[in-house]
Automatic annotation (TrEMBL):
<keyword id="KW-0368">Histidine biosynthesis</keyword>
<dbReference type="InterPro" id="IPR020583">
    <property type="entry name" value="Inositol_monoP_metal-BS"/>
</dbReference>
<feature type="binding site">
    <location>
        <position position="93"/>
    </location>
    <ligand>
        <name>Mg(2+) 2</name>
    </ligand>
</feature>
<keyword id="KW-0378">Hydrolase</keyword>
<dbReference type="Pfam" id="PF00459">
    <property type="entry name" value="Inositol_P"/>
</dbReference>
<comment type="similarity">
    <text>Belongs to the inositol monophosphatase superfamily.</text>
</comment>
<feature type="binding site">
    <location>
        <position position="90"/>
    </location>
    <ligand>
        <name>Mg(2+) 2</name>
    </ligand>
</feature>
<dbReference type="InterPro" id="IPR051090">
    <property type="entry name" value="Inositol_monoP_superfamily"/>
</dbReference>
<feature type="binding site">
    <location>
        <position position="214"/>
    </location>
    <ligand>
        <name>Mg(2+) 1</name>
    </ligand>
</feature>
<feature type="binding site">
    <location>
        <position position="74"/>
    </location>
    <ligand>
        <name>Mg(2+) 1</name>
    </ligand>
</feature>
<feature type="binding site">
    <location>
        <position position="92"/>
    </location>
    <ligand>
        <name>Mg(2+) 1</name>
    </ligand>
</feature>
<dbReference type="InterPro" id="IPR000760">
    <property type="entry name" value="Inositol_monophosphatase-like"/>
</dbReference>
<keyword id="KW-0028">Amino-acid biosynthesis</keyword>
<keyword id="KW-0479">Metal-binding</keyword>
<dbReference type="GO" id="GO:0000105">
    <property type="term" value="P:L-histidine biosynthetic process"/>
</dbReference>
<protein>
    <recommendedName>
        <fullName>Histidinol-phosphatase</fullName>
        <ecNumber>3.1.3.15</ecNumber>
    </recommendedName>
</protein>
<keyword id="KW-0460">Magnesium</keyword>
Length: 262
């Protein structure tokens, strides 16, 4: 049985997450645009030594600081998932971008308390941009508060999805229905698109096939910047969500997008 959580002090969490991201950024850049062997996992997604080494270092640091906390990550065995506090990690979100030299990959760090995200970090090593969201606090970009565009109409919105390759037939139909109503649609970005949404440059992100390590860190970042992020039915995202994610710059835009999907 999961024990009740002991509240984590937000400033302490933020400091630790910043230090952790400093370490992972440096590691990622030491591997970036260098020769790397690429393996294929069971789902045929690529993985490199960099992915595994970065996550191993993150796990080591978390275990030293918070030995009772659980860890759910992309590349290594999950531990203590019955804990009230769980760290959710993606060492390189956008491995395909990383191995092809595109500087749009990032590291995602989330800390959950009783299943709800208390902290989320999107760190983009090649650009030095780092978004941090803390529950009930404004999202920051490199320490300065940032905000979504606040746009409310699909006709004015810029929509991103990482790649149409992730959509099945039904998902592709949904994407076409939604993107046919926006002002502009673009492809690429991985987690970077969500950071750009939090800073007001992108208005909608629409994806499917994501895992908890792909989206849990995004929740505090988007919400703390004034946006909305849910599944395609408008439900909250959690560890057991179906991987269908929509993020919007405002509640009104989110509602219009959900209407387009239905």
């Amino acid at each position: 049985m999961q024990s009740p959580s002991i509240p984590l002090e937000p400033e302490m969490l933020a400091r630790f997450a910043d230090e952790l991201a400093d370490v992972t950024d440096a590691m990622a850049m030491s591997y970036f645009r260098k020769p790397l062997d690429v393996e294929r996992k069971a789902d045929q997604s690529p993985v490199t030594l960099a992915d595994r080494a970065i996550e191993a270092k993150m796990r080591e640091r978390i275990a030293q600081k918070f030995p009772a906390h659980g860890i759910l990550g992309e590349e290594h065995e999950n531990t203590r998932l019955e804990s009230a506090h769980i760290w959710v990690l993606d060492p390189i979100d956008g491995t395909k971008s990383f191995i092809s030299g595109m500087p749009t990959f990032g590291t995602l760090i989330a800390c959950l308390s009783d299943g709800a995200p208390e902290l989320g970090v999107i760190s983009i090593p090649p650009t030095g941009e780092r978004w941090m969201g803390l529950h009930d606090k404004p999202t920051t970009l490199n320490g300065t508060p940032c905000h979504t565009s606040g746009r409310t109409r699909l006709a004015d919105a810029t929509l991103y999805t990482t790649t149409p390759d992730t959509f099945d037939a039904a998902g592709s139909g949904k994407f076409e229905a939604l993107s046919g109503q926006v002002g502009m649609r673009r492809f690429g970005g991985d987690c970077y698109a969500y950071g750009l949404l939090a800073s007001g440059h992108v208005d909608l992100v629409f994806e499917m096939g994501l895992h908890p390590y792909d989206y849990m860190a995004l929740v505090p970042v988007i919400e703390g910047a004034g946006g909305v992020i849910t599944d395609w039915q408008g439900g909250p995202l959690g560890l057991h969500s179906d991987g269908h994610v929509i993020a919007a710059a405002s509640a009104a835009l989110h509602q219009e997008a959900l209407a387009a999907l239905s």
